């Protein structure tokens, strides 16, 4: 069993929370095959014991099931002053699903297709019930279009969330490979946090989004640190998943071939016992703009390995600079949900 580790914490933008720089992404507990609730709860508890205090879920992860699992962990650790890091609390982030259940959003979707004001309130209440709390730390829109801000009902709905006392902060989760499609919301001051794909391949948030977040002192949540698995270094051209697993629709032949090739090109850079997941996480930790990154972790061994990256700190500057050359700019396509 792994000994207790030192988790590093970062300031969560202007909100000021002290959050673990390795958070917990909970999608895999409900949207991928091979998950069992007992194992999920053990993994969540292990993360708490090791100092993780930021948990990112969504109603869409199993139609509320992932939220319910998180609620169980919150109740199991209530009043335990030894958990949660320096400020001894666990932070809960969840997301409102788009009404039309379409990921990613598309330019032609109107606010009424995805987030009409009454619907926002309805799913706020669903998440509060699932998690079993009176107030959520962070409520996020699970898809986003900056153009929705032209509809004045949306800024009012965001302010209503805050004034309700049921939400401490509001955030947006940006579409895959579209970090530009959130800069308006950031600069207008409507949101407190931005969740975006950022990893060794997807470095483009550094171009415009991160500077905007820095200017407005917004928290950045870096999601998909392992590029849906390719940066874990275990994919091959023969990789397959059970029927119904989301990865079958993402790693179509075209994407699988390219992802394996890009990942394999990184393997010669590994030194001194470092593996691919560790390198991927520590690359992200090099960015001072990132408040936390949220790898998916379904087993205790994943928790222990991923959280250990915090104790090891950012990558050496030479390796980080070398990884800069492996940036892979992509654009959304029919399989890139």
What does this structure look like?
- The chain is an alpha/beta fold.
- It has one domain (9-326): NADP-dependent oxidoreductase domain (TIM Barrel), CATH 3.20.20.100.
- 35% of the residues lie in helices and 12% in strands.
- The chain is built from 13 helices and 10 strands.
- It has helices spanning 28-31, 37-49, 65-76, 111-114, 117-131, 153-163, 183-188, 209-216, 247-250, 253-264, 276-285, 300-312, 317-323; strands at residues 9-11, 18-20, 24-25, 54-56, 91-96, 136-141, 167-173, 193-197, 219-223, 292-293.
- The strands form 2 sheets. The chain has an 8-stranded parallel sheet with strand order 3-4-5-6-7-8-9-10, covered by helices on one side. A two-stranded antiparallel sheet has the order 1-2.
- Helix 7 links the parallel strand 7 and strand 8.
- The longest helix is centred in the middle third of the chain and has 15 residues, at 117-131.
- The protein is globular, with a radius of gyration of 19 Å.
- 44% of the residues are buried.
- Mean pLDDT is 93; it is low at 81-87.
Under CATH, the topology can be stated as TIM Barrel
Q: What structural class results from the helix and strand content?
A: alpha/beta
Strand order of the largest sheet: 3-4-5-6-7-8-9-10
| Strand and helix order | EEEHHEHEHHEHEHEHEHHHEHH
Major sheet summary line: 8 strands, parallel
Mind telling me the C-alpha Rg? 19 Å
For the secondary structure, the number of strands is 10
Q: Supply the CATH architecture.
A: Alpha-Beta Barrel
Average pLDDT, all residues: 93
Can you give the helix content as a percent range? Answer: 25-40%
The low-confidence parts are 81-87
What's the oligomerization state?
single chain
Strand content: 5-15%
Give the end-to-end Cα distance, rounded to a whole number of Å: 37 Å
Number of structural units classed as domains: 1
Count of DSSP H/I helices:
13
What's the overall geometry? globular
């Amino acid at each position: 069993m792994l000994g207790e580790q030192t988790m590093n914490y970062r300031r969560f933008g202007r909100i000021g929370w002290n959050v673990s720089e390795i958070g917990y992404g909970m999608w895999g507990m409900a949207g991928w095959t091979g998950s069992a609730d007992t194992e999920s709860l053990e993994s969540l508890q292990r993360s708490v014991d090791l100092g993780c205090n930021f948990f990112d879920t969504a109603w869409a992860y199993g139609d509320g099931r992932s939220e319910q699992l998180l609620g169980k962990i919150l109740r199991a650790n209530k009043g335990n002053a030894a958990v949660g890091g320096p400020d001894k609390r666990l932070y809960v982030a969840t997301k409102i699903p788009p009404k039309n259940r379409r990921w990613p959003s598309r330019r032609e979707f109107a606010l009424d297709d995805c987030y009409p004001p009454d619907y926002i309130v309805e799913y706020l209440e669903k998440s509060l019930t699932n998690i079993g709390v009176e107030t959520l730390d962070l409520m996020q829109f699970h898809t986003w279009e900056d153009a929705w801000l032209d509809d004045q009902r949306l800024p009012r709905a965001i302010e209503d969330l805050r004034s309700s006392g049921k939400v401490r902060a509001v955030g947006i989760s940006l579409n895959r490979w579209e970090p530009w499609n959130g800069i308006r919301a950031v600069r207008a001051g409507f949101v407190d946090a931005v969740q975006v794909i950022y990893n060794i391949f997807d470095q483009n948030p550094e171009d415009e989004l991160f500077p905007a977040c820095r200017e407005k002192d917004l928290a950045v949540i870096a999601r998909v640190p392992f590029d849906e698995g390719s940066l874990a270094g275990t994919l091959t051209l023969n990789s397959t998943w059970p029927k119904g697993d989301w990865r079958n629709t993402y790693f179509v032949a075209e994407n699988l071939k390219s992802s394996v090739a890009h990942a394999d090109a990184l393997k010669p850079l590994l030194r001194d016992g470092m593996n691919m997941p560790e390198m991927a996480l520590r690359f992200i930790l090099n960015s001072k703009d990132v408040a936390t990154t949220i790898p998916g972790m379904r087993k205790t061994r994943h928790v222990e390995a991923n959280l250990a990256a915090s104790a090891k700190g950012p990558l050496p500057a030479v390796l980080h600079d070398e990884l800069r050359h492996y940036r892979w700019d992509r654009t959304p396509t029919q399989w890139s949900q």
